[in-house]
Amino acid sequence: MDNKLDTISIRLALDEDFETIYAIWLDGIENSFDKKAIDEQAVRQKFRSNFQERQGIFIYWLAVDGEQNILGWQSLIRYSNNPFRQDTYAESSTYIAKHTRTQGIGKLLLEHMLKEAEKSKLEYVIGFVSLTNAAARKITEETGWMEVGIIPPPKKGDYIFPKSFLVRPV
Q1: Distance separating alpha carbons of residues 11 and 13, to the nearest angstrom
Q2: Domains of the chain with bracketed CATH
Q3: pLDDT in tens, 24-40
């Protein structure tokens, strides 16, 4: 492992980390979403709702440096509300601060999450990666994700950012 990664630790997100997590997410969504088309107040409220529902395996992990600066984050959110499946599927999100991208932090967070997921009731982790995000696609391949297909164009709305649909058994 890179010496720089040896100085990074992973911890659980706290309520007071929300603003930094949200800022990193907003900074990173340009690869996946049209920021001009979002109602930022509504999106912020929905993001906060997901963040506040942290419990069990459905949580946020943070990669931090020695001074506890947040370098990136990884989350698992509930993917199904079916009473029989709600604890067995999760959607993964990984976002890295712009100034620390390409340093291996995303892979470090994904590997940590997968180890934790294997200890839980989860059976599958699901993800969506923009087809143009070569770095994320490489990391998911290296960490055992299977590309199940490409999300087809919607009947409504734009298809600006085609995405692959990924599944990772845990």
Answers
A1: 6
A2: 3-169 (3.40.630.30)
A3: 999 988 877 877 777 88
What are φ and ψ of residue 169, in 5° steps? Answer: -65, 145
- Is 108:126 a contact under the CB 8 Å cutoff? no
Task: Give the containing element (helix H, strand E) for 73.
Answer: strand 70-78
How wide is the angle at C-alpha 70 spanned by C-alphas 88 and 27, nearest 5°?
A: 80
Tokens of 73: 């984050």
3-state secondary structure at position 83: coil
The model carries a pTM of: 0.92
Cβ atoms within 10 Å of 50's Cβ, excluding its own? 15
Supply angle C-alpha 139, 136, 141, rounded to 5: 35
User: Tokens in use for 105?
Assistant: 């932090």
pLDDT tens digits along 122-169: 999 999 999 999 999 999 999 999 999 999 998 987 788 899 999 999
Nearest to 59 by CA among 25, 22, 92: 92
Residue 1 scores a pLDDT above 50? no
